[in-house]
Amino acid sequence: MVLVCVEDFEQKAKEHLEKNALDYYKSGAGEQFTLSLNREAFRKLRLRPRCLRDVSKLDVGCKILGEQMKWPLGIAPTAMQKMAHPDGEIGNARAAGKAGSIFILSTLSTTSLEDLAAGAPDTVKWFQLYIYKDRSITEKLVRRAEKANFKALVLTIDAPIFGHRRADVRNNFSLPSHLTLANFQGVKATGVVTATGASGINEYVSSQFDPTITWQDIKWLKSITQLPIVVKGILTAEDAVLAKEFGCSGVIVSNHGARQIDTVPASIEALPEVVRAVGNDLLVMMDGGVLQGNDIFKALALGAKTVFIGRPAVWALAYNGQKGVEEMLSVLRKDFEITMALIGCQSFKDIQSSMVIHESAYSKL
Ligand SMILES: Cc1cc2nc3c(=O)[nH]c(=O)nc-3n(C[C@H](O)[C@H](O)[C@H](O)COP(=O)(O)O)c2cc1C
């Protein structure tokens, strides 16, 4: 069967994943209203294509934090990728590198940041960070990321605790015993995650992550590193302005794949207010629900400079490791290029906000 869209990769992934893992990757928080909304909100946006505009030479390359990327799509951090396929984070990162995409490594990865750097040396890598109660754990991660040539730190700010993911609680989810949180070999984090209970991962998070953190902690982070800091998990203009005031280099508008708090807006719904608030001063990016070329286009037209995908890369990895991710990225890239051409844009400078409009504009007719 030829796989022609991200949904095809998800179907294939289901044939390869145990229920425990599939539910973990798929789940959103609560009744998963926002999980559906992340898709629905894209569907409510209509494209307004322009015609006769010479689209013979497409150029979809872009510069992100000084790095030349081949297109405006990167891989978001998702935890524990070896549960999907033995190629794990290295396979995913190599595929990203080949496609000219940024790869963000999760703190909660099954490959250490040193092994990832050695395994995918040519990929532009960012490191996703949580702030631990024991600040020395976070500081060591920062030093290791610097040494391993990661280009930015992505501080996830929407997870002082983890959301209530019902399937994980039902399944008593924990990391399979043959895998570890590879950034913490020999440190107390290993093992805690395999504990049973409400959900092994939630137990780990509440025992280790610091729920007291505030914007002041960005000052601390900035005081210990020169790496650019991107905050991930912004859903309001107010927090975007704080990110600017506290000296962050960029924001990722994100609801964590709808896994933290249910009934928050879709990321694509929150994007415009963030762009209005800080779009001239900060690099604004987004993730959540991106499955096809026209989703990427809509996010760009609403002011994002690049988008990220989480689950689609996990599905492709589960289906066929690194090769699966390469194939999925190539399908998505082709779809994005078709969108660009058919809407009348040869490059980003041709993209106008008027090319995307909410469906309500048509119901008034
Ligand atoms: C299985 C899974 C694990 C995730 N793990 C992390 C993580 O470790 N750190 C983080 O900042 N975000 C994590 N996220 C959120 C993603 O980075 C991203 O925000 C989200 O997946 C984007 O939505 P999408 O899956 O619809 O593309 C995770 C998401 C999923 C689905």
UniProtKB/TrEMBL annotation:
Catalytic activity field: 2-hydroxyoctanoate + O2 = 2-oxooctanoate + H2O2; a (2S)-2-hydroxycarboxylate + O2 = a 2-oxocarboxylate + H2O2
Cofactor(s) of this protein: FMN
Binding site residues for glyoxylate: 24, 165, 256, 259
CDD domains tied to this protein: alpha_hydroxyacid_oxid_FMN
Keyword set, alphabetical order: Flavoprotein, FMN, Oxidoreductase
Domain FMN hydroxy acid dehydrogenase per the UniProt entry, residue ranges: 1-361
Single Gene Ontology BP annotation: fatty acid alpha-oxidation
Chain ranges passing through the membrane: none
SUPFAM superfamilies per UniProt: FMN-linked oxidoreductases (SSF51395)
Enzyme Commission designation: 1.1.3.15
KW Flavoprotein (keyword) present: yes
Gene Ontology molecular function, alphabetical: (S)-2-hydroxy-acid oxidase activity; FMN binding
Domain of life: Eukaryota
Residues the entry annotates as binding FMN: 77-79, 106, 128, 130, 156, 232, 254, 310-311
InterPro entries, per the entry: Aldolase_TIM, Alpha-hydoxy_acid_DH_FMN, FMN-dep_DH, FMN_HAD, FMN_hydac_DH_AS
GO CC terms in record: peroxisomal matrix
Active-site residue list: 256
Similarity annotation: Belongs to the FMN-dependent alpha-hydroxy acid dehydrogenase family.
Protein name: (S)-2-hydroxy-acid oxidase
Organism annotation: Drosophila willistoni
